[in-house]
Design a protein that fits this description.
The complex is a heterodimer of chains A (557) and B (292).
Chain A lengths: L1 E8 L2 E6 L4 E5 L2 E6 L7 E4 L2 E5 L5 E6 L4 E7 L9 E4 L5 E5 L2 E5 L6 E6 L10 E9 L2 E8 L5 E7 L16 E6 L4 H13 L4 E6 L9 H13 L6 E3 L5 H6 L7 H4 L6 H6 L1 E2 L2 E2 L2 E13 H5 L4 H6 L16 H16 L7 H17 L14 H5 L5 E6 L5 H13 E5 L3 E10 L6 H11 L2 H4 L8 E2 L2 H9 L5 E5 L6 E5 L3 H12 L3 E2 L4 H15 L5 H17 L1
Parallel strand pairs in A: 16-17, 16-18, 24-28
Antiparallel strand pairs in A: 1-2, 2-3, 3-4, 5-6, 6-7, 7-8, 9-10, 10-11, 11-12, 13-14, 14-15, 18-24, 19-20, 21-22, 21-23, 21-24, 21-25, 26-27
Helix pairs in contact in A: 1-12, 8-9, 8-16, 9-17, 14-15, 16-17
Chain B lengths: L10 H8 L1 H29 L12 H8 L1 H35 L2 H12 L2 H12 L4 H5 L1 H4 L10 H26 L3 H9 L4 H29 L2 H8 L10 H10 L3 H31 L1
Chain lengths: 557, 292
């Protein structure tokens, strides 16, 4: 199958096959071929073709007339994963992707960013560049969406960082977005918002990705100092930030009015409602699920009965001796945490139950101190028949893992979403004292809009927009995959979920009620002390008291 | 009594006119203290009486919340216990060491005692973790008795903290005490020798009264240095250490992270009042000891 074609001249074409071979055809006849790296990146003009080398650490410059690789330009690590290569009529090579437009100087072999990506279509995960041309410092790119049902032609000037920047000028308005972590959906929303408001300068600060980044708590303190000085960002991406404190202190704006104009799933809105007001809304959600054999799932009416059955399950829950105490705790904690942690104290009965359940499970699989095994919570081990249980989070359908989860659940037994729990991603809030509050609210609306929500983001969660979710539910596909166990030779092929499976997942998402809220400090204290109990270093009551003392101290602050 | 200035001048005008250059030279320092200390303190006072959300006057509500907060109570208790243990221990051992060091006029020993202060905190933290963590050196040495103990995250953490503080600061106090000893005229001791006073009597009636004035300075400096021990605690044991070493600065750190600025300011005012009063009382008590 041909992945990509580059027309080099009126009688010469380069064709990239799906196996990574690049063939050169002259006057319809195959004259040469050469191999390399990424099978979707190919460009050329005249007597040169360019593609990634083996390992995708550099670029091959292939001379069609001499039939050899004339030059191999090695790239620094920063530029090695840019998805697309383009070559203009002057044989200048450009890399195009979410880093921006980077030109490779053929003589010095250095890379120079000619257009930054931050506020442009280049960072929009819904679109990818299909066609590229550069002339006299002006760059034109045709973007298309994944289905190739829509396209956008965008012009850039070298040195600028905005779509169609020569056509507009900013009027000094700036919108700042702050998050601890980089988020692909937010970048896409920045791109979409930038198209609607080309006169607004949008600055997205992903604090952890900054050079010389310090600890998360230091970043939070720095942010709080800015807020205290009245200089907070216009929009918060609240993942990892003390949202409850911000709500208590009136830092966040009420979004309920804006949300009533969107089609965000009502139960997700309700989950964040407090006294009729909504101060934050997630841009995506993930589902913590348990997948097991039918025998195990029949005993999964509660997590405690699941733990009680640990010693009797056949095959065992996890591969014996391959689990560490910490991973057992980490996997199940999301299902218990909301009952353990109340507003300002630990529920010791719930904590006791959690520790006892974890003890039963870790003992049944002979959990160890330290392991460098791949987690046996992977649904693949379930499919291979090695284990009877898998604990994971379903984060959307783009990554094959989610397709696998449903397929393996159907193959081996069933899956369950416990207590209608969900994990929120990209939790958005607006700064109440923002000078651009209306624009900030509009940005949040853009992030929740169909155009941004319908895009698939790798490990990015399910959409919260009802129309985008329904679109996914109604979309059939021939996507699928295969996995195999080299030890046993078992080979499993799986396909995109059928309508019934998609509908079930759709209904599950519409039933979600409670976000898993696990403060990092609470999680850490719990995991350390719980692991000590599982290892037998302390008794149950000692572990409960230690955890209660430490976490209560934190919660009472 | 004849005044040194004319009746048409005030006392301050007279002082200023006769020390003009001095005031101008002091001005940058005064401005710096005002900008970096006085103004922030005034802002802190203001915020301690305000609601952080509405900015309205809240009276003593913040102080009541802070004093009733269990975490604050624990932090204060631990801080007082730490100061009450460390400072007497430090003063005693540094006085003893200074007494012997000054007797021998041994500059090398004085210098050696200052080495802990010169070692970077990060290095100390690394070594302490190697020594006191669960699988550290001390755990191995005491394995038969302690059975695998994390000295940094258990009831032993307080002892580790005291040892850290005393070890690190003893050299500084030794230097100060040694300076106090060296300020006493040798002739007094010679006279006491001739009068038949033994060493204990000489210490009690000559040395001790003469070094007491220095004692108040050393106590205050030790008190201020004790608050800096938080740095080591934070690096060794993290944001939420064992409860026995949960200090007032931990709470301040967390309140800043949670944006509870009104509580932070109220607690800071309380701590400032207590520390200032304590320092004043120490000074008065020691000065009274001198004059008696």
């Amino acid at each position: 199958m041909v992945n990509k074609i580059a027309v080099l001249s009126k009688d010469t074409v380069a064709a990239m096959l799906s196996d990574g071979t690049c063939q050169i055809h002259r006057n319809g006849e195959l004259t040469d071929s050469f191999n390399g790296g990424e099978a979707y990146a190919l460009s050329g003009y005249g007597k040169y073709a360019a593609r990634y080398n083996d390992g995708n650490t550099g670029v091959y410059l292939y001379n069609v007339e001499q039939k050899n690789i004339e030059k191999e330009i090695l790239l620094t690590k920063q530029y090695q994963n840019v998805p697309q290569i383009f070559m203009n009529v002057e044989n200048r090579i450009f890399l195009v992707g979410d880093l921006g437009i980077i030109e490779i100087d053929r003589e010095s072999e250095k890379c120079v960013t000619v257009v930054a990506a931050e506020q442009t279509m280049l960072s929009n995960a819904a679109y990818f560049p299909l066609w590229f041309e550069e002339k006299d410092g002006t760059i034109y790119i045709l973007f298309t969406n994944r289905d190739q049902t829509s396209g956008r032609l965008v012009q850039y000037q070298q040195g600028d960082g905005k779509d169609n920047s020569s056509l507009v000028s900013t009027d000094g308005h700036q919108l700042t977005i702050y998050g601890l972590y980089d988020n692909e959906l937010i970048r896409t929303a920045v791109s979409e918002f930038g198209l609607k408001h080309p006169d607004i300068d949008i600055v997205y600060e992903a604090a952890e990705s900054a050079e010389g980044a310090v600890t998360e708590s230091d970043l939070v303190r720095t942010l709080n100092a800015r807020i205290a000085a009245g200089n907070g960002p216009d929009i918060f991406v609240l993942d990892g930030l003390p949202m409850d404190s911000y709500v208590d202190r009136g830092i966040l704006e009420d979004l309920s009015g804006m949300l009533s104009e969107t089609d965000v799933i009502p139960n997700i809105q309700t989950a964040y409602e407090s006294g009729g007001e909504i101060y934050a809304v997630p841009a995506r959600v993930g589902l913590p699920i348990i997948i097991g054999t039918q025998d195990v799932m029949n005993r999964s009416s509660s997590l405690s009965s699941l733990a009680d059955y640990a010693n009797q399950a056949e095959p065992p829950y996890f591969v014996e001796g391959s689990e560490s105490y910490e991973t057992v705790i980490e996997s199940f904690l999301p299902f218990y945490i909301n009952s353990i942690v109340n507003e300002n104290h630990i529920d010791q009965d719930s904590l006791r139950m959690f520790l006892e359940d974890m003890k039963k499970i870790s003992d049944s699989v002979n959990a160890v101190e330290i392991t460098d095994f791949d987690s046996s919570h992977s649904p693949r081990r379930l499919a291979y028949g090695q284990v009877s249980l898998a604990v994971c989070t379903m984060k959307g359908m783009i990554d094959d893992e989610a397709t696998e989860m449903i397929a393996f659940a159907k193959l081996k037994g069933n899956y369950a979403v416990y207590q209608n729990l969900f994990e929120p991603y990209g939790l958005l809030g607006v700064y109440k004292a923002s000078g651009q509050k209306e624009l900030a609210i509009e940005f949040v609306k853009t992030a929740l809009s169909y155009e941004v929500q319908e895009t698939e983001y790798r490990h990015g969660g399910f959409p919260v927009s009802l129309s985008a979710l329904e679109k996914w539910r109604d979309t059939d596909s021939d996507r699928g995959g295969a996995t195999g166990d080299p030890d046993t030779g078992i080979q499993i092929n799986y396909k995109w979920p059928d309508a019934a499976s998609r509908n079930r997942l759709y209904e599950e998402i519409l039933s979600l009620k409670t976000p898993v809220v696990c403060d990092q400090v609470v999680r850490q204290r719990l995991e350390v002390s719980a692991a000590a109990y599982l290892k037998g270093e302390v008794t149950l009551e000692t572990a409960v008291q230690e955890i209660a003392n430490e976490v209560d101290l934190y919660l009472q602050e | 009594m004849k005044l040194p200035y004319r009746k048409s001048q005030t006392k301050w005008t007279y002082i200023f006119r006769n020390n003009t250059w001095g005031f101008w030279m002091l001005l940058p320092s005064i401005v710096g203290v005002a900008v970096f200390h006085v103004i922030p303190m005034a802002e802190m006072f203001k915020r301690s009486f305000a609601n952080n959300t509405t900015k309205a006057f809240a009276g003593f509500q913040n102080y009541i919340s802070v004093i009733g907060n269990p975490s604050f109570q624990l932090a204060v208790k631990n801080t007082i216990l730490f100061l009450g243990t460390c400072i007497p221990v430090l003063l005693f051992f540094s006085l003893l060491a200074a007494y012997f060091v000054s007797k021998k006029k041994d500059d090398i020993r004085k210098t050696v005692m200052l080495i802990p202060m010169a070692i970077p905190v990060a290095s100390i933290v690394l070594v302490w973790k190697l020594m006191f963590s669960r699988y550290g050196l001390l755990d191995k040495l005491t394995g038969g008795f302690a059975g695998g103990v994390d000295f940094l995250n258990s009831k032993w953490a307080f002892g580790v903290l005291v040892i850290t503080y005393v070890w690190r600061n003893i050299g500084y106090d030794v230097i100060l005490w040694a300076a106090a000893f060296n300020s006493i005229d040798r002739c007094i001791y010679e006279a006491a020798d001739m009068d038949g006073a033994d060493r204990f009597m000489q210490f009690r009636y000559i040395t001790w009264p003469c070094i007491l004035p220095y004692g108040s300075v050393i106590v205050i400096l030790s008190l201020l240095n004790a608050f800096k021990a938080f740095r080591e605690v934070y690096l060794i044991a993290g944001e939420y250490p064992d409860q026995s070493i949960y200090l007032i600065q931990h709470l301040f750190n967390h309140w800043l992270a949670d944006l509870k600025l009104e509580h932070l300011c109220a607690a800071a005012v309380l701590v400032m009042i207590v520390v200032s009063l304590s320092a004043l009382l120490f000074q008065k008590a020691l000065d009274k000891g001198v004059y008696s």
